[in-house]
Structure formats: C-alpha cells, structure tokens
Amino acid sequence: MSVVAIAVFVGALAVIATEWVHRTKAALVGAGLVVIVGVVDLEQATEAVDWGTLGLLIGMMVIVGLTERTGVFTYLALRVAQLSRGRPARLLFLLAGATGVMSAFLDNLTAILLVVPITLLIADVLRISPLPLVLTEVIASNVGGTATLIGDPPNIMIGTHVPELSFLDFIVNLAPVSAVTLGTVTTLLYLVFRRQLVTDPARIAELERLDPAADMRESRYVKRSLAVLVGTIVAFFLHAPLHLEPAVVALGGATIMLLVAGDDVEEALERVEWSTMFFFLGLFVMVGALEQQGVIERVADGLADLTGGSTLAEGLILLWGGAAGSAVVDNIPFTAAMLPVVDELTAGEPFDDALWWSLALGACFGGNATMIAAAANVAATGVLERSGQPISFLRFLAVGLPVTIVSLAIATVYLVLFQL
Amino acid sequence: MATVLGIELVPASVPVTATVREAAAVLTAHPVSAAAVLDEHQAVVGVFGGDDLLLSLFPRYLDELRHTTFARDDPALLERRAREAGEEAVRDHMARPVMVDVGASATHVAEVFLHCEFDALPVVAEGRFVGMLGRSEFCRAMLEATTPRREPQQPPSVAR
Predict the structure, then answer these.
(1) In the 3-class helix/strand/coil scheme, how is B35-72 assigned residue by residue?
(2) B63 contacts in chain A (CB < 8 Å)
(3) 8 Å CB contact between A18 and A1
(4) Is there a contact between A210 and B70 if contact means CB atoms under 8 Å apart?
(5) Do the chains contact at A69 and B69, CB–CB below 8 Å?
(6) Would you call B34 helix, strand, or coil by DSSP?
(7) Partner-chain contact B70 A214, CB within 8 Å
(8) For testing the chain A interface, which of B55, B58, B67 should be mutated: the one with the most A CBs within 10 Å?
(9) Residues of B with CB under 8 A from a CB of A
(10) Which residues touch B40 (CB under 8 Å, ≥6 apart)?
C-alpha cells in the first residue's frame, strides 16, 4: 500500500507541476484514489485534514473580501504610487513595501489579487511597462508574506500544524529576515529594471491628479470593515495569551464582519476561493496516506541518517531543499508533505522551532523561483495574461531564480547565526 | 425571416474569421446586444456581446478592477486601444456560446435566459444557426401571449 500512496502523491505532484489539469482536480483525484483503494479509510482521511488551515484561510478570505468592497486597498495602492512622485526607485520601493506589508497581514495571494490590477492602471497612466512593477510585487508578496503566520500558505500550514508557534513567534523569528531580504531583492530589481521605469513629468502630474479616496467615499462600510480587519490582526497578536487558535481568530473576525458589514451572506461566502480549499483538502488526505503507510517516517529517517542528526545540516537541507521542491511543484503541496517529516525529525526532543523556520523560509522564499512555485505567482501571471501582457516561464525564471538564490543566501546566514 | 415561438429572429452573426471591427458593425446594425460567431458549417462556435466589445475597447485589466471612480480617461490610450482592438480577431474576444434549439419551449428559453449572462441567444436548428433571440423581444412576446384579451364590454344590465 505504501507504493500506491507514493505513486498517487508523486503522480498528483507531476500533474500539478505540469498544469496538465487544474491542481484542485489533481489533488481531489489523488485523495479519492487513496481512499477508494483503501490506503486510508474515511475516518483516517478526515483526521488527516488540517481543518485549522482551512478555517484560517476561509476566515481571512471573507474578511478581506468584504473589506475590498470599500475600495480601501485601491486607495492604498494608488496613494503609494502617488507618494513616489514618479521617481522610479521610490515607486518600486514603495510598491514593494506596500505589497510586502499587505501580504504579511492579509496573505500574499490576496494582496497580489488586490494590487496587480491597480498597478496595471498606474503603469498605463505613467505610460511605462507594468512588468517590472508586477514582478517586483510578486516577489515582494512572497517575501513579505514570509514575515507572519498568515502571510503565506506555507506559514499558515506550519502555524496551524504546530500549536507551540504563535503569531508573535513568526514575527519575531521571520519578520526581520524578511525585511532585510525584501530591501535587498528590491534593490536588485531596481538595478535590473531602472531603465524601464523612467517616467514623463506630464504623466506623473496626471497620476497625482487622481483622487484615490473617491471610491471609499461611496462605501458605507469603510469604518466598520477596517475596524474588523484591524481588530482581527490585533487578535492574531494576542491569540496565544488568549488561548485562541489562529483559525478561531480568523473565523471569529469573519463572523463579526458578516454581522456588521455583510448584508448578503451568500455574496460574502462567494469571496472564499473554494477551489483552493478543496486543493488543500485533497493534499492533506494524500499526505495522510503517506503518513499512514510509514513513508514520511522513512523519509525523515533517511534525512536524519544523511545529516547524522545535525540540526544545522537538517535546517539547511530543509531551507534549500524546501526552496527547490517548492520551485518545482508549488510550495503548498511541498509544505504539506514536509510538515510530518519535520514532526518526525523533532520527535522525542525538547521543542525546538529552528527547523520550522528553516522550512518556512525555504518554502516561502522558494515560491519566488518559478511561475508555478507559489499561488501568488500563478494569480499575478494570470492577471497579466488576461490583460494581454503575458510573461513567459523563462522570463519569470530569469528574474525569480536569482532573487531566490539571493534570498536563500540571506536566510542561510540568518539561520546559521541565530537559529541552528 | 426565421421565427421561434412566433418571435422574429435577428440574423446577427459573423464568421469566426471576422475582426472585432466587423463584429461591432454587426452589433450596431441589429437590434440585439450579441451576435453569433459561426464556423464554415454555420455552427455556432461563440457569442460576441456588448461586454466582449467593451473589454476589447478598454484595457483588459478593467475586468479585474472593482473601484474606478477615481479614473480619468486618457483619450490617446483609448484611441490606440480601439484602433488595435478593431483589427483583432473576434475569436480572441468571443464567449462560449449558450444556445437554444428552434423547437425549445418558452419555459426552457426563460430558464436559459435567467441563467446566462447574454441578452440574446443563438437559436439553432440541427446544429446550424438560424438567428438571435433577444431577451426583451422574448419577454414582450410572452407578455402579449399571456395577457388576457379584453372581452368587448357588455352594456350594464338593467334587469334585476
């Protein structure tokens, strides 16, 4: 049965990586197969699902979706662009910073879906190519999202899987290295793109004439939505002393949002990306099958043998291997498979968070390497394609891979000096 | 002129090889908001409607935006976009077709209209296009068919 579990998981990963069919279909077919063949029974499959991850994602999607209606995120993106006064370096750094911060506190996929369309409009107003701006935003979203428990799907999965790690732990351990990395890679991107960002003063004046608050004035839910969003983020900071799981905070925030700013429950729930939820569901069941058959234990034992039990070596393998795995198959399934492996590696020892930070940095930073490595990349390149400005796999790789290597180098120094 | 349920159909169609400019000309020449896109066998392969025309005339990212009150028109950009869009192939802008058969019941047509985004549907007979059925034409025909005819007024009776 372990051969079946491995074959199904590897097959699903191959289908996801090659985009042969939609990733949700691949994950659900895989999950269905392991249950039908009898690798796991229904009870085991249900237990394998990390309902906390799904709850956290659903809660945040509702909160952000209902806040988006108010136009507040459009205001932020436009205001940030105006603050640049058309200076290329300032424009790139401000957009990267804003996207990074939004990713950290909303999640990077949502941030990208909010920021990229308005960036296309800003690029049109300035009459510059949107590609340098959008690529910078994608990279900033993956790096910025690394800073918090809710910023990037791998962190959401780690944060809900490991109850010892709080929202604040993520910020203390990952935000500084994310900030340094964001500054460094944005500088590199500026050096690469600076010639494409030169703007005409007349166009800058046109950008500054726009009234970014115009849409917010038309919405009656701005104050309520922002209050719930900010309240939820504050509650994330306090979830550990309050003994509330992150998913409870997100779902609680979503419920309050529905009560105070969601006149139509059906419409609010349409903001949830159900295909992503079912993708996670399928992945968890397939990984549960691998666990059930002892495959994960054997991988962890192999890794421990390879490293001789050295935490430093294990951490660096998780970092660089995690990035490589994420680049090839998407960081969500990769993280789903690695969670139980790290569980095995840390089993029987006093709790040490170092390997979890290695996995988080590897999976999140690795998300920048290729077009398919992270959900935010897929979303951004999809918007570009629908807008008639597609970016090729190789063009993305030419920017994403060097950025990933630089990010991993920074992460290596950080882990060696402060964690491992 | 072909009819369905007693309603005259509109012959609004373009070949799949047409440009957006040609499709737009067909739309403006007929009293329906969508035209059928046909292959060489007169089979419907797509529908080109008002939304598709709008998306071809304006930057395509407009479909991804929800807040544009602040936006100002850039005439040069819009003119260039319209010029480029005119030469683009209609097949790159058309939507997947939703059709009804020439023998469809009024109930079925009403259900299809309720669940589709178009204000006009291609009507087909044995897989070949016969004409476009407009939503408002259909509603008007249904109203006329279902409104009870007024009986000639009887003079009030005086007998008790």
Answers:
(1) EEEECCCCCEEEEEEHHHHHHHHCCHHHHHCCCCCCCC
(2) 386
(3) no
(4) yes
(5) no
(6) strand
(7) yes
(8) B67
(9) 59-61, 63-72, 74, 77
(10) B15
Q: What are the 10-residue block averages of pLDDT along chain B, 160 residues in total?
A: 82 96 94 94 95 90 89 88 91 94 93 92 95 94 79 50
Say which residues have a Cβ less than 8 Å from residue A116's Cβ, sequence separation at least 6.
A134, A137, A379, A380, A383, A384, B64
- For the four alpha carbons of A163, A169, A171 and A173, in that order, the dihedral sign comes to negative
* B92: chain A residues, CB-CB within 8 Å: none
How far does the CA of residue B17 sit from the closest CA of chain A (Å)? 20
Distance of CA A138 to the CA centre of its chain: 10
- Tell me the H-state helices in A20-151: 23-37, 42-48, 51-68, 72-83, 88-106, 108-126, 131-145
Alpha carbon distance A120, A111 (integer Å): 14
Query: Using CB atoms, which residue from A113, A116, A209 is nearest to B72?
Result: A209
Separation in Å, CA of A168 to nearest CA in chain B: 34
Residue B89, phi-psi category: left (phi > 0), alpha (psi -120 to 50), beta (remainder): beta
Output the CA angle A379-A385-A387, nearest 5 degrees.
105
**Distance (Å, rounded) from C-alpha A227 to C-alpha A250?**
14
- With tokens 């659900």, the residue in question is A28
Contacts of B61 in chain A (CB under 8 A): 117, 120-121, 383, 386-387
pLDDT digit string (tens) for A279-320? 889 989 998 999 889 888 888 888 888 888 888 999 999 999
